[in-house]
Amino acid sequence: MPAPIRLRELIRTIRTARTQAEEREMIQKECAAIRSSFREEDNTYRCRNVAKLLYMHMLGYPAHFGQLECLKLIASQKFTDKRIGYLGAMLLLDERQDVHLLMTNCIKNDLNHSTQYVQGLALCTLGCMGSSEMCRDLAGEVEKLLKTSNSYLRKKAALCAVHVIRKVPELMEMFLPATKNLLSEKNHGVLHTSVVLLTEMCERSPDMLSHFRKLVPQLVRILKNLIMSGYSPEHDVSGISDPFLQVRILRLLRILGKGDDDSSEAMNDILAQVATNTETSKNVGNAILYETVLTIMDIKSESGLRVLAINILGRFLLNNDKNIRYVALTSLLKTVQTDHNAVQRHRSTIVDCLKDLDVSIKRRAMELSFALVNGNNIRGMMKELLYFLDSCDPEFKADCASGIFLAAEKYAPSKRWHIDTIMRVLTTAGSYVRDDSVPNLIQLITNSVEMHAYTVQRLYKALLDDISQQPLVQVASWCIGEYGDLLVSGQCEEEEPIQVTEDEVLDVLEGLLVSNLSTPVTRGYSLTAIMKLSTRFSSVNRIKKVVSIYGSSIDVELQQRAVEYNALFKKYDHMRPALLERMPIMEKTATNGPAEIVQTNGETESTILDTKHLPSITQPASQANDLLDLLGGNDVVPVIQTTVPTKPASAGGELLDLLGDLSLTGGPTPTPAPSVPMSQPPFLLDGLTSQPLFNDIAAGIPPMTAYNKNGLKIEFTFERSNPNPNIAVITIHATNSTEVDMTEFVFQAAVPKTFQLQLLSPSSNVVPALNQGSVTQVIRVLNPQKQQLRMRIKLTYTHKGSPVQDLAEVNNFPPQSWQ
Amino acid sequence: MMHFLLLFSRQGKLRLQKWFLPLPERERKKIVKDMTTMVLARKPRTCNFLHWKDLKIVYKRYASLYFCCGLESQDNELLALEILHRYVELLDKYFGNVCELDIIFNFEKAYFILDEFLMGGEIQETSKQSIAKSVEASDMLQETMEEYMSKPAF
What we know:
The complex is a heterodimer of chains A (819) and B (154).
Chain A: H1 7-15, H2 20-39, H3 46-59, H4 67-75, H5 79-92, H6 103-111, H7 116-129, H8 132-146, H9 151-167, H10 188-204, H11 206-212, H12 216-228, E1 236-237, E2 240-241, H13 243-257, H14 261-277, H15 283-298, H16 303-317, H17 322-335, H18 340-344, H19 347-352, H20 359-372, H21 378-391, H22 394-411, H23 415-429, H24 437-447, H25 452-465, H26 470-489, H27 502-514, H28 520-533, H29 540-549, H30 556-570, H31 576-579, E3 586-588, E4 594-597, H32 610-631, E5 636-637, H33 649-659, H34 683-686, E6 704-709, E7 712-720, E8 727-736, E9 742-752, E10 756-759, E11 775-782, E12 791-799, E13 802-810
Antiparallel strand pairs in A: 1-2, 3-4, 5-9, 6-7, 7-8, 8-11, 9-12, 10-11, 12-13
Helix pairs in contact in A: 2-3, 3-5, 4-5, 5-7, 6-7, 6-8, 7-9, 8-9, 9-10, 10-11, 10-13, 12-13, 12-14, 13-14, 13-15, 14-15, 14-16, 15-16, 15-17, 16-17, 17-20, 21-22, 21-23, 22-23, 23-25, 24-26, 25-26, 26-27, 26-28, 27-28, 28-29, 28-30, 29-30
Chain B: E1 2-9, E2 14-19, H1 25-40, E3 49-52, E4 55-62, E5 65-71, H2 77-95, H3 100-105, H4 107-117, E6 118-119, E7 122-123, H5 128-149
Antiparallel strand pairs in B: 1-2, 1-5, 3-4, 4-5, 6-7
Helix pairs in contact in B: 4-5
């Protein structure tokens, strides 16, 4: 069997491969050779083969079959074997494989080896990839080596101990005695690793932290020596003595000084010294200054020192080196909350960083700029931020736009400025604003009453330029729909009013409907806007035509809207003006949406037409069926719980008059978004149940008691609908004289076939005990044939925990009610 | 602590990978891929720091090799640049005007040197001479073994 080829030979061969396939072939061939060599248990060349395997592993090929071989190498007596074996173990094995535990014994032996370099290998491997089990087994050995006088081993043992503590924190106590005189070492390697070990212990255990606080003077002394000592060739980096150790000591001081007055005071001087004496021309000096600043900011330093720190960061910002500017911005972001005023002083430099070419710096500068915006600098800052929004990469635009909106909302000096700012964002980054900004903006615009004309004019002009940015288009459509009349009448005060005709406006809105750039949501907005203009513009016919065309649109949402608007034109034209009136001022709530409509009459996107209430009809139908069953005689018409008035136009006029008096609770959502609140019955009619409908309360019809049993009393009061004498309006009042409330109260009624009955929603379904209140409900009975009114009623409620149900006939209607 | 140290060429070929955390093979491959993609995409005069997941990534290009390491949030990035530079100096001292080919053909030596400089993601020795002496001594140990066996090791 020829000797396996040497490592360098293999590397050279593989590098000559011209294609991936060629390389793969070579590797496979070599792997096969290696595998057979492993099978032959060849001790001589095992090392060579594993080395080759590691090379192939680095190229990305599988090498797991070499794992056991690594263990064999580690167990060998040859140093070369051990070296490669441990390297292989670190690369190929990890704690997930059970195989790694086999190493434990080898490592234990090697930790006690006579040659320090073998011990070093074992410590290194344990300290890099030792699992918790291994650490537990070998912690004792590590601790022993931590106390040795051999500095080569001591430094490695210290870092190995750090790893053990990270894996098995409970073992921390074990290393405490060994730390006693770690800091009195002269050897920098040991010093450095000791500081790392102390840092790890202090970070993990508050007890250790208080224990080690006494080391602060010693640490300060070591740091001082490093700074004051002359040139030391061994540790010098660009004129600074052992910067690695300096930084580590500063970091440990930070942890020890945090929250502790005495320690912080003990280190004030040295921190000031480091901050002022360190050379800043090279990166290494700045690395130390950076760590110093972080330490000053974290401990309880005196204010002079803090100002010094922030000034260092300010100087960093002016440094040519990008890395240093980046680091400064990151640190300032951390301190801006606590030292706001000090950071404000560097605001102009920070804002300049917005123009930096480096993406990481730009992002940090943007975040910091937003943190620095306040009432005083809002105008200047916003100018810079808007300029940044114009020119920045798309990845920033969304965050920047949101940030601008937030800042504008908090600090806007005037409404006009606020709206101008929003307009600017929408026109420059309109496609990047977040979805929830559209309703927020609409709310803002609605509430700025005096700016309506100006806003709609500007939005209209923006639309003329560009209809591709959906949030802009949506807000603009909404505004035109609401304030189109102001637009056409040229009422703008803030700027030169433009001349625009109704047809031009409608052209624009119709253009949105047909454009490929518009999303379905935007189309919905523009259709609704067109509809709203039917009460503000005179060209109603054109609008009617548009609306009816979309009644057959493929888009279901659009079709539904168009059909309903169409119906509004045809059957419910009397309601159209009220429905499409101006939106009232919306109050802002914590959830960022309007809670109550302060005034009356908002537009409801959910129309009061049949389509919305079909679901609710099924329920009363089943109830009506019950009644029918019981009545036997089938000349009874079931109750229809619809809310569609079947009255002629003039009666509708009266309805609308009265709505002005009603105070309505709850309201529609301000966004004409596709999600229509299905559960909300039109509030127009909610109010009707609590008050008499009509101006002329029919005089003289006496009330009657329809039912009085078991403490439940139901009274009927009558009103006659004046324009239509065939309709009797009965209001039931249910009262409860028992001591317990009646809950889940439902009142149902049925009338003979020649009548039509409409039952409106009750005021509530709890009849309070002891006559403390009443439930009212309105019944409207159409009696065209003027027959004698009879009624069968059914009552269901829960009383004292058990359900109650009762039927009754009401025949004692006063003649005036139906004649 | 440092989580990993990677060396890769301008074409994205891995030349050295040191992991200070136990990660499954699949995870390591993904990190290598992400790092090479991110770092190679960086424009020439940008800063040497990146953010990736919750780690700070520090990278520096030396001739045709990228040195890239992943740090935790409390680590000092500017010092990490010094650490990378120190490693390059150590390699340079050992190989004499080190270039990528040296690291390709002597990758195991690059690892040995690294293992004298860093351990468990932390610096174990800050003196260049001390590290050079240890590596030299270990090499001697290897050679004497070879002489004894009168056969080249590999």
